[in-house]
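User: Show me a protein chain along with its predicted structure.
Assistant: Here is one chain, sequence first, then structure tokens.
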Amino acid sequence: MNDFGVAETVGPAETGRARDVDVVVIGAGQAGLSSAYHLRRSGLVPDRDFVTLDHAPRPGGAWQFRWPSLTYEKIHGMHALPGLELTGADGSRPSSEVVGGYFTAYEERFGLRVRRPVDVTAVREGDGGRLRVETSDGLWSARALINATGTWDRPFWPRYRGQETFRGRQLHTAGYPGPGAFAGLRVVVVGGGASGTQHLMEIADVAAGTTWVTRRPPVFREGPFGEEQGREAVALVEERVRAGLPPRSVVSVTGLPVNEAIERARERGVLDRLPMFDRITPSGVAWDDGRHVEADVILWATGFRPAIDHLAPLRLREPGGGIRVEDTRAVRDERVHLVGYGPSASTIGANRAGRAAVRGIRALLAREPVLVP
């Protein structure tokens, strides 16, 4: 770390005694940076009172891994981080470049001193009621933890009968290279979310043919979507999290907004959807009613799951498979806050959750340390 507060590459893992801080923030995407900003604003000092660890090679969160054809004008809106607006962005530039540059400027402006690349392998019960955070950069001991690891590192691949026999190529949104890679090919796109429809519309312009399949009929949202509808959508996601169920994305309950690109794709028949196939064959996909579609590529736009395996030693999961969260606090352990999880997965939600998490952590830190049984 240099004298100007700009993150430098971390070297080999340190050994020996754990380094003590009040708070460890895991992840430096929108949720992690918002949390770090509010921690600093509350009076805590980066690299003394709290540390922010990020496994990515550079600033930008998951945005840095997005495909080049996803330009900034195509994203469904990104709420600015607290304290610094993103202005004058060129909408024709890749969103990975725009957001990456913005996050870099943000880290430097507020001296957040993000340490990267650092992989967090496990969070366990430590000594004296503290949390032990095991990383590729050695050990940390913290009184509280903000987990802001998002979902990008856990792409969800469904399993279907015959999948291993397919002679073509299978890939996931996480590895989507842009439409050029599909020129002249027959492509099956699986998934009815925002990524699936964007991939489909791009690929249709260059492919020999496209087929769109989804488990449920896609929901397109026509007309205005105001603050009240937004609150209702977030409440539906939050209800699952409060019940300890795995969170669904906010988009899964809001539906897909209809824009000019969607309208054009509808007119061309690109968005004519088929129900989910029953099996995969060496040359394509098939349904039990006898229908078969030949394919060179199957593109799984089937979403992601929360990247929280490193929290497993704390036994935070409920029988339903998720972590029960109230506001941002894990119900099973008040020292752990999840930001960007479930209802706070949107960019504006991550900002609000970062502020809420810090408020709860400051209250925890104000109390005398108590041994956790």
